Amino acid sequence: MAYKNALSTYKETTIKTAGQGQLIVMLYDEAVKQLAKAIELLEQNNTEKKDPGRIEQIGKAVMKTEEILTELMVSLDFEQGGEISKNLFSLYTWFNRELLEANINKDIQRMSTIRDMISDLRNAWSQIASHTADQSNREAVGLNIAG
Questions:
Q1: What's residue 130's pLDDT?
Q2: Using the 8-state DSSP alphabet, how is residue 60 labeled?
Q3: What is the total count of domains within the chain?
Q4: Is 117 exposed, middle or buried (0-12, 13-18, 19+ CB in 10 A)?
Q5: Whole-number pLDDT of residue 141
Q6: Are 129 and 21 in contact (CB under 8 A)?
Q7: Residues of the chain whose pLDDT is less than 50?
Q8: 72 lies in some domain
Q9: Cα 34 to Cα 57: distance, rounded to the nearest angstrom
């Protein structure tokens, strides 16, 4: 019980203290994790006896990924992001449509393609976030607070 509370507190603190870029990477991480879970469950369902409970778990994992993509969509800043924001919005919309179809048809290949594309975006955002953090650290190093 104490372990669960400590883990929950740690996760909450990590999220509250994360920068914007890190939060985006965390969302991508969770989306990849949820799709990997859905794919694994779908593969099990194809090789083992079909289980209605497993089908429900697959649907929940895909829906969680869709919710994350929707969260990423609403966080876009079209004024500052310009063309990049518009392109990401279109991509997230396409991901959600593909996931809806993949979930209905239980299409592992479609889910895998989306998972891989989200993973690629995650890696790009991770590099951006670490570069931005490096720049912030360099600026802070030259700061003299002694007066």
A1: 84
A2: H
A3: 1
A4: middle
A5: 43
A6: yes
A7: 10-11, 15, 137-147
A8: yes
A9: 10
In a domain, 30, yes or no: yes
Name residues whose C-beta falls within 8 Å of residue 7's C-beta, 6 or more positions apart in sequence: none
Q: Are 133 and 21 in contact (CB under 8 A)?
A: yes
Inter-axis angle of helices 108-141 and 78-105, to 10 degrees? 150
Contact 103, 59 (CB under 8 A): yes
Task: Give Cα separations from 38 to 91, 118, 122 (angstroms).
Answer: 21, 14, 18
Q: Quick check: 119 and 46 in contact, CB under 8 A?
A: no
User: The whole model's pTM is what?
Assistant: 0.77
Report residue 64 as tokens: 């969680």
CA distance linking residue 6 with residue 3, whole number of Å: 5
- List the CATH number of the domain containing 113: 1.20.120.340
pLDDT of 142: 45
Count of beta carbons in the 10 Å neighbourhood of residue 6: 10
Instruction: Output the pLDDT for position 140.
Output: 43
DSSP-assigned letters across all residues of 32-62? HHHHHHHHHHHHHHHHS---HHHHHHHHHHH
**Domain span at residue 110?**
20-126
